[in-house]
Amino acid sequence: MPFDIGPLVAVIALLIFGFVGLTILAPAAIAVRRRSKLAGVIAIAIAGFWAHVWLRPDMERTRRKGAVEQCETQLAALPGVFKGKSLLDESAGLSMRVIVQLLSERNLDFIELKPVVMKDGKPLWIQPRGAWSNGAWQLPELTSPYVRLRLSKKGDPACRPMVNGDLDPMPPFLPDTCLAIEEVSKPSAELALEHEAAGSGIGTSYGLRRLVKREPRQVLAQLTTSESAGMTSSLSQHRLSPSNADARDRDCRLPFYVLLDRVHAPERSSEALAEQVVHTRRVKAKRSLESVLASSSDWPRLVVAKETYADLTKEQEVATFVPEISMSAWAGAVEAARLQGGASVPFGPRLLDLKQRTLIELQDVWPYPWKTHALLDGFFVLKDHLGWDKSEGNLLVRFDRDGAFEWAVMVVPPKVQSENPMSWPQALYVVDKKLVLAGRGSRSTRWEVPLKQLPSMIDRSGAAGQSTLER
Questions:
Q1: Model pTM?
Q2: Does pLDDT of 186 surpass 60?
Q3: 8 A C-beta contact, residue 315 and residue 332
Q4: Which of 68, 148, 318, 343, CA to CA, is 20 to 30 A from 234?
């Protein structure tokens, strides 16, 4: 028989309300019987306390709702973009995750922070639980009125290990990147995010978030907020919109981020941007999947010369097949690009042009199971599925670095295959002037095709197709 919780809830509620009533009625009764002013004052104070406890949550929700409604009215007239090379945050509203985005994706030269002194007397510089996903980054104890954060190279004495412990040396950063922290007495940022907290003299129950140009002072935008000093409604996973997209943050519960999401650096050449940041350039394939497949009977056959093997360590396997998750593979790609003096090198599905500090990506070329591999200063696209060892119609398509279609071939398996043939290629690289299509595993099955058998293609990469195993 199921237990009926209703009577239990009723009893608990009766006890709670009985206790509340008793705390009020007892001193009130004493005040009446004994004509005690003190007891009367105590009864009134207790009644006020309970009214505050029960009514404050509703009052606070109503106040926040009103602030959001005012903000949404102001939001309709808010410009989409505000340009500036640097930013000062005077409200301790940034997380380290967003600071990294501003310095990399948004191309700001530096970020300056002014602390908010909390009730315990300690300075709050950033949102403590807004640092990446685990909240691991915390600024050290600092005594200056402001700090400046900028990207730098390892070895810079301003780079502090306790801050940089979780800075991932992966794209968009070069492997030797660190975050420098400088104590400054006077800020010099071009823009500033200000917070006029509720109850600080503005004659209303609401506060304001402002984005201003500092010299000469000009208020660029402001939004109503219900947040108090040192309080920024934020989420640990909160991110700014992609730099090439319109500001998508229109949630007036987060007015700080609504303004911040519209801050971008002005357009500048890659040489003028931070040296430690590699930017992504997306190119569109200039021929469709449907067009290539429709002409499949016209494409020449490319017979694989032979099947070989390579025994890989775990690190080599990751660097060969999923380099985009390998710090050592990224460091190796950057070093190879430096040694080759400007030639592009492959890094998974993207080409690294270190001279332009750019990763070139063939954008959304075709849907799964089609997969892109960067190699030989361009891109190869193939079908990422089982059955390559049994089919003579394995399509391999070539695009140049700007997305122009160059050629397509039908890859035919080698005449002699092992008992463990390659089911499908999961990596492409060049070894000894041969194109290698490699199956994944600690013992990697490889199909080899001499480069001279491939159709002609634009290749400005020199030895850029060299495999991870040869570096």
A1: 0.74
A2: yes
A3: no
A4: 148
